[in-house]
Amino acid sequence: MTEIVGADRATAGPASIAQGVYGARGNLELLACDAVDGLWVFWFNADHDDDPLQTPEVPPGRWSAGLHFAAGARYVDAQIVQSPLGPNHLEVLALDAEGGLQSWYWSPEAAFTRRGTDAASDVARFRLGEPDDEGALRATTLGGDGRIRGFASAPLPYPERSWHPASAGPALDDERAVRRLGELGVLHRVVPGTARSADSTRHGGTVELVWREHDGLLRHRGVPV
Q1: Per-residue pLDDT at 24
Q2: pTM, two decimal places
Q3: 21, 30, 96, 116: which sits with the fewest CB atoms below 10 Å from its CB?
Q4: Is the C-alpha dihedral spanning 214, 216, 217, 222 positive or negative?
């Protein structure tokens, strides 16, 4: 079933989805840019009705109303992944309208926190890859000069991070998401560049898809692996 996420929030651009660890079965985390200022994070309660109720404001099988953060800047893209560090912190790269690729993380103690050093500058597009088991990250950027660059970030000293040039990173386009949406017959309605995917443990294993359609709304659907 396809669901609309954040229909009453003014979001813009592509969104990003990740399999989280909170809740009995692991929430989904969805990150989107506000149309004017800051970022929104939405979470999907993947628990079953008979699981212990941990988030009464978000019933099982429903998306949250969203949490706003990072006020004071306009963003054009943002991506989120679950980290094994912290433990179980979330990592965010957020591209502001000036081309700065900001580095953020979420912890239960301090919520979303921006690091003092950005990941890169003069960025037009980017893609953040999934962390490895030690928490190392890789990203790929398309610069304002048209060059594609890879970056890597070692896990220590955490929670600080520094990013360094790397020989390779993830592909800029999420080809799996585009292919899956084509199989569902909805690709013609998708705003180009907004299709994203993530692996999930829901229902024994799904590919979670998120995209924006030409009506301006964000949509989510989980499809079997």
Answers
A1: 67
A2: 0.95
A3: 116
A4: positive
